[in-house]
Specification:
heterodimer; A: mainly beta; B: mainly beta; globular
Chain lengths: 116, 116
């Protein structure tokens, strides 16, 4: 069965410094993986997705993530944080892709704070 | 106009009252979902529907019911609200016709429910 673990509930960085949000997954096969972002008082928005093409995936707003099968990780990074990046970030894995019981599993979320 | 619309956006009610949260979508997707978000717990699936005739319980369906009135409409009801159902509720849709589409959800902006 699939599962996903976000290793940090809260990350705080200074504006202009790199961002690293960590996600580890558990899967019996090579999964699809997603990162979503939720800005305050908003719904979730897809940031980027990995679907077994390139292992380095680029998303919106300068974010990217690298799929590392050997480490079962899909960490989200950005070279330089901006104040507008302050939000909650969720790592997501679909479960049971081709079965009628397919569903989508969310990590518990990482709140990213940006210091001026 | 938003592709996934939730009403009401905010609601305060009292214990024991019946509440309905409504969701409508213009994306033409067959799959619709209701999630509940609580701080530190991420999103938890309440119910999901793969088409008008197919409704399934999620991980936390107790105390909730749903109705899929049409492809575009999926309502969540709390028959007798209790304070621990105070949360932010999200409706979402997905298109299962592609492997990528299985994990990509399109969210409404949420309905904040407070049960006193």
């Amino acid at each position: 069965a699939q599962s996903v673990t976000q290793l940090d509930s809260h990350v705080s960085v200074s504006e202009g410094t790199p961002v690293l949000l960590r996600c580890n997954y558990s899967s019996s096969y090579s999964p699809s993986l997603f990162w979503y972002v939720q800005h305050p008082n908003k719904g979730l928005q897809l940031l980027l997705k990995y679907t077994s093409a390139a292992t380095l995936v680029k998303g919106i707003n300068g974010f990217e993530a690298e799929f590392k099968k050997s480490e079962t990780s899909f960490h989200l990074t950005k070279p330089s944080a901006h104040m507008s990046d302050a939000a909650e970030y969720f790592c997501v894995v679909p479960h049971g892709l081709y079965s009628s019981a397919s569903k989508i599993i969310f990590g518990s979320g990482t709140r990213l704070s940006i210091r001026p | 106009d938003a592709d996934v619309t939730q009403t009401p956006r905010n609601r305060i009610t009292k214990t024991g009252k019946r509440i309905m949260l409504e969701c409508s979508q213009t994306k033409g997707h067959d799959r619709m979902y209701w999630y509940r978000q609580d701080p530190g717990l991420g999103l938890r699936l309440i119910y999901y529907s793969f088409d008008v005739k197919d409704i399934n319980k999620g991980e936390i369906s107790d105390g909730y019911s749903v109705s899929r009135q049409a492809q575009a409409k999926f309502s969540l009801s709390l028959e007798s609200a209790i304070p621990n159902q105070t949360a932010l509720y999200f409706c979402a849709t997905s298109d299962p016709r592609s492997r990528e589409g299985l994990g990509e959800l399109f969210f409404g902006e949420g309905s904040r429910l407070t049960v006193l």
